[in-house]
Design brief:
With about 290 residues, this protein is mostly helical. About 70% of the residues lie in helices and about 10% in strands.
């Protein structure tokens, strides 16, 4: 093990072994198809396929790969609105998440600063935030549909380019993902040493300079923790949003395949959602590291 540690191979080998272990459990639990030939009452030979196993409807890893190959080997193909390559579905979901996430940051960051700077603002609005924070996206989406009911922005081709469901989706993603940024920004602002603020007063810095020279740099590590958590929630919410509004994307594809009893494609969607979430978190971690060392 020391040899592997010296070569830093343990960070590769151990996850691979864990993945193989999980795939082995999946293969053991999943069902297997058995094909038999019988003779019916009319004397004709009939081929009957049955599934056996601990969870007979759960496709095995090989079956999942076989069923998912068209979506993986042609990742950007578009065969229909809800029949596209997995990379194309992912891109559609990411675009919606990016819009809702940016909207969340724009709204949440000032609120976080107000919470951190003003005790009166905290006393007034903190109970409301604590009540709204745990509300499920499944509850926010219908409200968004009501708020933006009748919204239609027409495109150059005469079709609706941005409608009620689009606005409700952005509203749901933004309001569900904004809370970690609000709370962590507030904590970061409260943690700014009083000496820093006293120096700002001695130097007679304006409020804008105090904000950009002292408050934001000091609170930035806390803010990025909130940004990372908000991004993870935004990616989680997209699945529920796309499932409910029927919008093409990974979540919409998952819901469509659930209705079609295509369990292999459901697993493909789950693995894609997990992998993309992991990549987003790693990318955010890299950005956070660069800001901290700057």
């Amino acid at each position: 093990m020391n040899f592997f540690s010296k070569l830093k191979l343990d960070s590769i080998l151990l996850p691979l072994l864990a993945i193989l272990f999980c795939v082995g459990i999946w293969s053991f639990v999943s069902g297997k198809s058995t094909t038999t030939t019988k003779t019916d009452d009319w004397g004709d030979k009939v081929t009957v396929t049955t599934r056996e196993g601990l969870s007979k409807d759960l496709p095995s890893p090989v079956e999942t790969w076989t069923a998912s190959k068209p979506y993986i080997e042609q990742p950007v193909a578009k065969r229909g609105e809800l029949d596209q390559g997995i990379l194309r579905f992912t891109w559609l979901s990411l675009k919606l998440v990016a819009q809702g996430y940016l909207l969340a940051l724009v709204v949440a960051t000032p609120i976080g600063f107000l919470l951190g700077l003003s005790k009166m603002f905290t006393k007034a609005f903190d109970p409301i935030i604590q009540i709204l924070r745990p509300v499920s996206p499944l509850a926010w989406l219908p409200l968004g549909m009501v708020i933006f009911s009748g919204l239609k922005i027409m495109g150059p081709d005469g079709r609706v380019s941005f409608g009620t469901s689009d606005a409700a989706a952005l509203f749901t993603i933004a309001i569900c993902s904004m809370w970690p940024t609000v709370l962590n920004t507030a904590v970061g602002v409260r943690a700014v040493p009083q000496d820093y603020l006293n120096v700002a007063k001695v130097l007679k810095l304006s409020k804008a300079k105090t904000l950009f020279k002292i408050l934001i740099p000091s609170a930035l590590p806390y803010m990025f923790t909130g940004f990372r958590l908000s991004l993870g929630i935004a990616w989680l919410v997209i699945v529920a949003v796309e499932m409910l509004i029927g919008k093409p994307g990974v979540g919409g594809f998952l819901w469509q395949q659930y209705n079609a009893n295509s369990f292999a494609h459901i697993i493909l969607c789950i693995l894609t959602i997990g992998l993309v979430g992991y990549v987003l978190d790693r990318l955010m971690s890299l950005v956070e590291g660069r800001f901290r060392t700057a």
